[in-house]
Amino acid sequence: MLFAPSQKSAISSAASLLILAQTISPVAAGCNSYVTTGSTGNQTYNNYALYDFRHLPDDVSGTPVYAQDENFPNGQFALATSPFFNSTTWTNYWSSIADLKKADPNLSQYVDTVFTPLNVAIAKDNSTTPDGETVLSLTTTRLEGYSPSAQIQSNQKFMHASVRMSARMLGPPGACGSFFLYGDDNNESDIELLTNDTQNGASMFHATNHPSQDSKGNTIPGASTIAPIPLNGTQNGTQTAPWSEWTNWRMDWLSDRTQWIVNGDLVVDKTWSPPKIPSYLSVNMWSNGGSWTGNMTVGQTATLQIRWIEIVYNTTSDNPSSGTVCVVGDNNDAANINAIDANPVSWASPRLSSSKLSWIAIIGVSAWMFL
User: Fold this and answer.
1) Cβ contacts of residue 44 below 8 Å, gap of 6+?
2) Are 296 and 270 spatial neighbours (Cβ–Cβ below 8 Å)?
3) Tell me: the pLDDT tens digits for 281-336?
4) Is 243 inside a domain boundary?
5) How far is it, in rounded angstroms, from Cα 168 to Cα 124?
6) Per-residue confidence band for 232, with pLDDT thresholds at 50, 70 and 90
7) What phi and psi, each to the nearest 5 degrees, are found at residue 368?
8) Which of 88, 103, 226, 349 is the most buried (most CB within 10 A)?
9) pTM for the full model?
10) CATH number of the domain within which 290 lies
């Protein structure tokens, strides 16, 4: 049963999720393994999950509550901002991180970064999308001496994956939003967005495989690339997308490379140091007043909003399962992502086709899977 401060609110949340389960779209089924398109080669994966945050009921939405105590990481049992984050719908797959990154002026980090579940919320999407949609909201706020921030992490490790996310970032200069695959400091692939990062009027993003520095602190050539965010297949001048617009981000971690695909364009391809060990997927929004992120004015807030996260992945080897192979395309129309709970690894349906690119759909959802 969903956690709630009272039995009444628990029943209300459960009922809303039941309604959601009964009114969602058909699910594509019959897939034993998956092939991705739009990147180098035909990488095959054995698992698929889609986490769609756009259609959560009103009673699990909330407004971020900012930590007022820089020692908050010692109080990791603080309540989440929404009953949703204490339900198995969330906790079976994700964790909201509580952690403290101390300021270090030697590294140009001038205030503490406090990662707190209080800055992870379900909020209304106030963009021009249909009324009533919700988003996963990660926020960071500049307070005197520290910055409450947000991070989520997958409970499962992956061994090669195609990770996709529909997201945008709002707020003043001085914050960083990122999503990354992390095994250790020498096995990491990431996308980073800075709210102060523009060049010649174009919004930029950072694509990096680690390590990005050698033992002497020197930058390793080819480890990191700063590139403009493409819009509709273009990458020049004012035709690039600002990070405040909804953007489809994709990072493919293959055995011999990592590739960054943005709005359908293959923008960066790196053979330098793709991760070699199982890695978690993390998403965060943070600030530290440093020279790299910039320094937000005290009281200002920046937000990373996420519509959905899609993962096609392996956990051990790249050997495909026998049976039907389905194709996972690079669909840039977020409206074509269907919200549904299809199986124990997802509360959303795969937008998949069979090896012949034909759609397969069946109707049938167990509502209790949301409870």
Assistant:
1) 33, 34, 35, 318, 320, 325
2) no
3) 999 999 999 988 999 999 999 999 999 999 999 998 777 777 788 878 765 443 33
4) yes
5) 14
6) low
7) -65, -15
8) 349
9) 0.80
10) 2.60.120.200
90 by DSSP, 3-state: which? helix
**Which residues are within 8 A (CB) of 174 and not within 5 positions of it... i.e. 6 or more apart?**
142, 195, 196, 287, 289, 293, 294, 295, 296, 297, 300, 302
> The domain containing residue 158 runs over which residues?
46-322
Look up residue 17 and give its two tokens.
């999720």
Give the pair of three-digit tokens for residue 24: 């969602």
> Is 15 contained in some domain?
no
Q: Does 261 fall in a domain?
A: yes
- Measured at the alpha carbon of residue 248, what is the angle toward residues 44 and 238, in degrees to the nearest 5? 135
- Identity of the amino acid at 337: I
Task: State how far the Cα of 77 lies from the Cα of 79, in Å rounded to an integer.
Answer: 6
Distance CA 16, CA 365 (A): 15
Dist. CA 93–CA 10, nearest whole Å: 21
Task: Work out how many domains the chain is built from and give that number.
Answer: 1
pLDDT tens digits, residue range 16-25? 333 233 222 2
